[in-house]
Specification:
Blueprint: E1 2-3, H1 10-22, E2 27-29, H2 37-47, E3 55-60, H3 67-81, E4 86-91, H4 99-111, E5 115-121, H5 125-132, E6 141-145, E7 155-157, H6 169-178, H7 182-192, H8 204-211, H9 220-227
Parallel strand pairs: 1-2, 2-3, 3-4, 4-5, 5-6, 6-7
């Protein structure tokens, strides 16, 4: 999948989505907070492929949480995306004051066919346990920060640590061994852990490079060496 955080220029978005599609990407991850849903919708339309051939995720921002606010904001998101439904809708960050009301709205949106699957983002275990006390449907995904400096094996955002891990000598040495870039090594490390990844880039060549990670694999020792870089450093 392709993360679209901070990609807001229409021409750039159209270029990177086209390049990613041609490289085999089929999941596109946006959010209300990214302020690019309309541009993403336009770029996906420009591909000229059937809607069911790609998977779109978006997230409800904190300012739009609460029952009525969530319903209204998702209606606007669908208009901006030029879609009848999104494949996965997530709560972007847990907000205590609107916690259950927001989730009730999510369940209604799913029942009405406007959302295929429900998820969360940046939830801790305590949030998921709390949600389970009243939810009729539990999230199918919890998207969290995960990279070699903060090992949390779920569906991660910032799988490359926004570049912070790429200068690690351990990763560089492994990259040299396989004739790959440090980014490709980190993405392959995620796959070794069975983690789903949504790297972000605004550069078509890097998008293609990020998909070219299936012709090598890491040894058990190399995976362990990257695991050992964990220092519990958060980006956000």
């Amino acid at each position: 999948g392709l993360g679209l955080y901070k990609v807001t220029d229409q021409d750039n978005l159209t270029e990177v989505i086209k390049a990613s599609w041609e490289a085999g990407y089929r999941l596109f991850d946006t959010a209300q907070m990214y302020k690019n849903e309309a541009e993403v919708g336009h770029s996906l339309r420009e591909l000229g492929v059937p809607r069911e051939d790609y998977f779109v995720t978006t997230k409800v921002a904190e300012a739009n949480q609460g029952y009525d606010q969530t319903l209204a904001s998702v209606e606007q998101s669908l208009k901006d995306l030029q879609m009848d439904y999104v494949d996965l809708l997530m709560v972007h960050w847990p907000l205590h004051e609107q916690f259950f009301d927001t989730w009730r709205a999510f369940e209604r949106l799913q029942a009405e066919g406007l959302v295929k699957s429900l998820g969360t983002s940046n939830f801790g275990m305590i949030h998921l346990q709390y949600l389970a006390t009243q939810a009729n449907e539990m999230p199918v995904v919890n998207q969290i920060e995960n990279h070699p400096h903060l090992v949390q094996p779920e569906l991660p955002w910032a799988p490359l640590g926004r570049g912070s891990v790429l200068a690690e000598p351990t990763i560089g040495a492994i990259a040299d061994k396989y004739g790959k870039s440090p980014a490709q090594v980190v993405l392959r490390w995620h796959l070794a852990h069975g983690t789903s990844i949504i790297p972000k880039s605004v550069h078509p060549q890097r998008i293609i490079e990020n998909a070219d990670i299936y012709d090598f694999s890491l040894t058990v020792e190399e995976v362990a060496a990257i695991d050992a870089l964990n220092n519990f450093t958060r980006i956000s």
